[in-house]
Specification:
Blueprint lengths: L4 E6 L4 H9 L8 E6 L9 H5 L5 E3 L11 E4 L5 E5 L2 E5 L11 H12 L3 E5 L8 H9 L3 E5 L8 H9 L4 E3 L1 H11 L11
Parallel strand pairs: 1-2, 1-7, 2-4, 3-4, 7-8, 8-9
Antiparallel strand pairs: 5-6
Helix pairs in contact: 1-6, 3-4, 4-5
């Protein structure tokens, strides 16, 4: 089974884990990666520059951008990062779980659009954003990965996901990247197709 859509959500304390994960990816990663980290809506986000590594380009996408392998799409401040068919959609809709961008919105969009091709990852953070989205991923046949709460500087988001969702893998931040590489498939071409 092809797994080629990776959605990663984090909040407080997730940056170091996110950097470790991205550093585990090969430059020819046969998956598209979507990242949502809670940021203040009025601040410029430097996250794409921070996680661009080893030839994998991370960027804030624009609505209509094609979804491609070996790319990391980072949610810009104050908009939800969504997917429709094989393109990115940015939406300034209502906040979810007190956030925009919300992890739940991105995870749900990925699940509905790409179904069992999705791997969802919940990292360190406060409260419970990502839990409902991870549930959607599981409902459509995707894989749920959660950072080990003992490894997270803010364990509330991982704990919420573990307590609520039938999680497939709980792993430390050093283990998640290699796990994701093992879960994805080499099938497909450079453009993600629905």
């Amino acid at each position: 089974m092809r797994r080629d859509i990776i959605v990663i959500g984090g909040s407080a304390g997730s940056l170091e884990a996110l950097k470790r994960i991205v550093r585990s990816f090969p430059p020819d990663l046969s998956a598209a990666v979507f990242v949502v980290v809670h940021v203040l809506p009025w601040r410029k986000s430097d996250l794409p520059a921070i996680i661009t590594y080893n030839g994998l380009l991370a960027s804030h996408p624009q609505t209509g951008d094609a979804i491609e392998y070996s790319r990391i799409y980072v949610a810009p401040p104050n908009v939800h990062l969504l997917m429709q068919d094989s393109h990115v959609q940015l939406w300034h809709g209502p906040k979810e779980s007190q956030h925009r961008p919300a992890i739940n919105a991105t995870f749900r969009s990925a699940a509905v659009t790409f179904k069992d091709r999705v791997i969802g990852v919940v990292l360190s953070g406060a409260l419970d954003d990502g839990t409902t989205g991870l549930w959607w991923i599981k409902q459509f046949g995707g894989v749920a990965v959660v950072q080990d709460p003992n490894d997270a500087s803010h364990p509330a988001m991982p704990l919420s996901a573990i307590e609520t969702v039938d999680v497939d893998h709980v792993a430390g931040s050093d283990e998640i990247g290699p796990l994701l590489v093992n879960l994805i498939s080499d099938e497909g071409n450079r453009k993600v197709r629905r």
